[in-house]
Design a protein that fits this description.
It is built from 21 helices and 25 strands. By secondary structure, the chain is of the alpha/beta class. It has three domains: 270 residues, Alpha-Beta Barrel (TIM Barrel), CATH 3.20.20; 136 residues, 2,3-Dihydroxybiphenyl 1,2-Dioxygenase, domain 1 (Roll); 186 residues, 2,3-Dihydroxybiphenyl 1,2-Dioxygenase, domain 1, CATH 3.10.180.10. The strands form three sheets. Strands 17, 18, 19, 20, 21, 22, 23, 24 and 25 form a nine-stranded mixed beta sheet that branches.
């Protein structure tokens, strides 16, 4: 299996795109004609540039409005084709995409179209060129891959084949299972794109909202399973029209693209017994059993304020690292690490972001398998010199340069707290926190799809529907990534401007990622009482919220009174209830959440976000709080 990407999918000029595509590990490119025309180099020079980057021209496109044209328009269509063939010869390209006709002059008829393609195939064969026919979802007469296949079948020419595109099939809700009946040798090329489900004009949807497989809502896996069942093992290519991608990092989008293709092919190979896709072996997505630890990078003075906060939350310092300036704070199954080293990765993170979460450790079944899969999917590996007594824990880079470490039960990794730390006795002032429920990461909105793909392709997780979090200064898009059993949850929050709480946090912390950590308790009211006894100040919620809550949900006055007294927010759905309270914010917007889930509630209390954010903005930078 070879991988390719259309140049139209990336930002920059053609040279920028070629460099990023090659660095990401693609085998080839689709040259979109606009990119070539806008570039200041001859066809021969462009072809040489492509090959100098170790790439091939997998496809040249598009050739429009060809089949079914009447009279003089038909003659002109063949003249245009000959000029296109001349250009391809100089580029060194041997496959051209012909998309179904959208011209109002075009005449219908499968036999008429087949005759045109038979003649085009003859002309192409004389040049050593193959012609691929694609059904556009908005084609005038042909807008279904089944009709396009019938045209190719009746054309009956070795140099004329079918090009399949997942968007054009799935956008029109055509059953992809019909692809299984097409002979593999008649499929010349396969283009892949996903998209969010939006009810809009097909052309506009296609030109602005496509994204990588796995980032949207279309059944690209089902489409690809049907393709693989034919025995196809040719090039898989991405053709992505997306406004955000056109303004994003060329390198980042290229890496995302290849990651999406490799992950998709791997999944299809596992699900489709008849698949002929040739792909290097890699472990399957690895289940995450939970968050083993969260590490803060800070310095000595600010660590004192952090220690007071953690003590108020019921954590106690239970250990010191055997050779580093690192403390361990624990409660229930929660491990928080406070790193005040003056060199190394954590210190560099502090210098850049201030006090921040620089590292998360995840409990997994097989740490080595995670590392192997992550490497195959193009993730950046992380290593640093080991201090005395320190374990070599597998790790990769995460959001904003942070790190993800992996702990399993297969080796001494599970004994990290015994091996690396000298344990300390101390008074247990726990408030009933039992585990980390979820971690919330903030990012620029245009980065969300990248990190969604990162989590869902490496780990056994799935995405939930995106929700709009209403901040008084604008919208923040939020999407959760969850393991099947809920043991691992990350919420991705995309800020569109710096005036929102999430956007302000990003701007003022120079891109720090983790904005809040949510701890779970089994009894939110008992925890609230214990927090008050510890002198911990929770976020004060407007009394108006509770008056509205009681009326809106018909809650008992006694329950509303208890919620109000403890500043606890409430939500419920058909499956259960959700209780949440918050710390005050640190510095520019970092905070803790404490929650209780009852029944089968699986959400995150998004309905309460506007009231929580308004309260946080009122209380930003309270006196005596450390700058984070």
């Amino acid at each position: 299996m070879k991988t390719s990407i259309a140049t139209v999918s990336l930002s920059g000029d053609l040279s920028d795109k070629l460099q990023a595509i090659a660095a990401a590990g693609f085998d080839g490119i689709e040259i979109f004609e606009t990119d070539f025309v806008a570039f200041d180099a001859s066809p021969r020079e462009v072809g040489a540039m492509v090959r100098d980057h170790g790439l091939e021209i997998s496809l040249f496109q598009p050739f429009r409005d060809f089949e079914g044209m009447p009279g003089e328009a038909r003659a002109r269509a063949f003249e245009r084709a000959e000029r296109k063939f001349d250009l391809m010869g100089e580029l060194g390209a041997n496959l051209v995409l012909v998309c179904s006709n959208v011209s109002p002059e075009a005449l219908g008829g499968i036999d008429r179209a087949a005759a045109d393609f038979r003649e085009l195939g003859e002309r192409a064969a004389a040049r050593g060129i193959r012609v691929g026919y694609e059904a556009l979802a908005w084609g005038r007469h042909v807008n279904d891959h089944r009709d396009a296949w019938e045209v190719v079948r009746r054309a009956d020419h070795a140099n004329v084949g079918l090009i399949l595109d997942s968007f054009h099939t799935l956008a029109r809700k055509i059953d992809p299972e019909t692809i299984r009946r097409i002979p593999a040798d008649r499929i010349f090329f396969v283009q892949l794109a996903d998209a969010p489900r939006i009810d809009m004009d097909l052309l506009y949807w296609s030109r602005h909202f496509r994204n990588m497989p796995g980032q949207g809502d279309l059944d690209v896996t089902g489409f690809m399973r049907a393709v693989a069942a034919t025995g196809y093992d040719g090039t898989l290519s991405l053709e992505i029209f997306n406004d955000q991608f056109r303004g994003a990092s060329t390198r980042s989008i290229a890496v995302d693209g290849r990651r999406s293709l490799i992950a998709l092919a791997d999944r299809v190979r596992r699900e489709e017994p008849a698949s002929a896709l040739s792909l290097p072996e890699m472990p399957d997505r690895v289940p995450v059993q939970g968050v083993e630890f969260v590490e803060f990078a800070t310095e000595a003075a600010e660590a004192e304020g952090l220690a007071r906060m953690l003590s108020g939350l019921g954590f106690r310092r239970s250990g010191r690292h055997v050779s580093k300036s690192v403390e361990l704070w624990t409660q229930g199954a929660i491990h928080l690490v406070v790193n005040t080293e003056t060199e190394g990765f954590a210190h560099a993170s502090y210098v850049l972001h201030g006090t921040n979460v620089c590292d998360m450790g995840l409990r997994v079944e097989d740490a080595g398998a995670v590392l192997e899969r992550a490497r195959a999917l193009g993730a950046d590996m992380f290593e640093q010199p080991l201090a005395p007594g320190q374990l070599a824990i597998p790790a990769i880079r995460g959001l904003s340069g942070s790190v993800l470490h992996f702990i399993d039960e297969r080796s001494d990794l599970s004994r990290v707290w015994e091996i690396e730390f000298e344990r300390e006795a101390g008074e247990d002032r726990g408030v009933g926190l039992v585990e980390i429920d979820h971690v919330a990461q903030s990012m620029r909105y245009e980065e969300m799809l990248t990190w969604l793909l990162f989590y869902t392709t490496i780990f056994e997780t799935a995405k939930t529907p995106m929700v709009d979090v209403v901040d008084p200064a604008g919208l923040v898009r939020s999407q959760a990534i969850e393991s099947p059993d809920g043991a691992f949850r990350v919420t991705l929050n995309g800020a569109e401007n710096a005036r929102t709480l999430a956007g302000h946090f990003l701007a003022e912390s120079f891109g720090s990622s983790v904005q809040h950590i949510a701890f779970r308790t089994d009894d939110i009211f008992a925890t609230a009482e214990a927090l008050a006894a510890n002198g911990f100040e929770t976020l004060e919620i407007s009394p108006n919220y509770y008056a509205d809550l009681g009326a809106r949900l018909g809650l008992a006055p006694e329950l509303v009174a208890r919620l109000k007294a403890a500043h606890i927010l409430y939500d419920r759905d058909e499956a259960g209830e959700y209780f949440q309270l918050y710390s005050r914010t640190w510095g520019e917007g970092f905070f803790f959440e404490i929650l209780e889930r009852r029944g089968g509630y699986k959400g995150y209390g998004a309905v309460n976000a506007p009231f929580r954010i308004a309260a946080q903005k009122r209380g930003m930078r309270p006196a005596g709080m450390p700058k984070v």
